Amino acid sequence: MQSEEETIILSSPDAVVHLEYEPKTLPSLQQVAAEYGGGSWTRFVCISDTHCKTFEVPDGDVLLHSGDLTKVGRTVEMKKTMEWIYGLPHKVKIVIAGNHDLPLHREWYEENWKRWAWSMKQDFDSVSEWLTGERAKASGVIYLENEKATFRLAPDRREWYEKLNFDSKWSPEYHNWAFNYQPEEAEG
Hints:
InterPro entries: Calcineurin-like_PHP, Metallo-depent_PP-like, UPF0046_metallophosphoest. With 188 residues, this protein is an alpha/beta fold.
């Protein structure tokens, strides 16, 4: 197992980036505050492509789940993943859909759901409720759909806004999955 120092890929006076880590090897939020002079640090924990899998996630201030929460967007899959996310300790949980979260691309899904014949058509409102409903809000979930998040972790902490542009679930076309675009549609 690598030490914390071996997992750091970028370090500056106000940022430390770990690309790979074991949650137990990272210092606690309290240790970071003590080592770097106060509670002004914000720990972002970034995950993606979990496809209904749950696992140990390091403690942090903000969790960013950037796509593919599910295998194919079934309500039961979204429920499993979101119940896991609700239970994580992060105060803010930013969630973005991915190409596997099929029903969330509503227009595409209406035209393509039958391709997934082994699956019954999922109800958009039932699936999206797990991301935008009262329970999601109470758990600190912010579901982004082509928008930016603005939040403050505490009154004396900085406001996070324009620097957080984790808002796009779109990806280049891949076998006609959800949220795909053609190369000629790409914006520079």
